[in-house]
Design a protein that fits this description.
The protein is an alpha+beta fold. It has a single domain, classed as Winged helix-like DNA-binding domain superfamily/Winged helix DNA-binding domain (Arc Repressor Mutant, subunit A), CATH 1.10.10. The chain has five helices and three strands; from the N terminus they run H-H-E-H-H-E-E-H. A three-stranded antiparallel β-sheet has the order 1-3-2. A hairpin with a 2-residue loop joins strand 2 and strand 3. The longest helix is centred in the N-terminal third of the chain and has 24 residues.
Length: about 110
């Protein structure tokens, strides 16, 4: 294997690891709900607590995981921390997944019928 082939392989491995980190950061129903809310507009933690229904500590932990993966970012304004969606492509991906789930369900119903 040439030096360039090794570099290309290493870049590919890093890219896949980075993708896996993003998918892991999204792999929780509460985090997906947070992403849906942030796709509409930025929110402070207290607003997300009300929208999602978990306690502030739990919401903050979810946001920390997503921030580490680059899915969201934040800024402090006075005593509040506001979060916004950094990866603008995530809602479109979630919509694609939703459509695929609906198609698969229709296919299953069609096959059973």
């Amino acid at each position: 294997m040439t030096k360039q082939e090794h570099i290309d392989r290493d870049v590919g491995v890093r890219r896949c690891k980075n993708r896996a980190e993003v998918f892991k950061a999204l792999a929780h129903p509460t985090r997906m709900r947070i992403v849906e809310a942030l796709a509409q507009r930025e929110h402070c933690v207290n607003e997300l607590v009300e929208l999602v229904g978990d306690d502030p500590s739990t919401i903050s932990k979810h946001l920390t995981i997503m921030k580490a993966a680059g899915v969201v970012n934040n800024d402090r304004r006075g005593t509040s921390v506001f979060y916004r969606l950094k990866m603008k492509c995530v809602p479109g991906f979630m919509e694609c997944v939703d459509k695929a789930i609906v198609r698969a369900a229709r296919d299953q119903i069609g096959a059973a019928g």
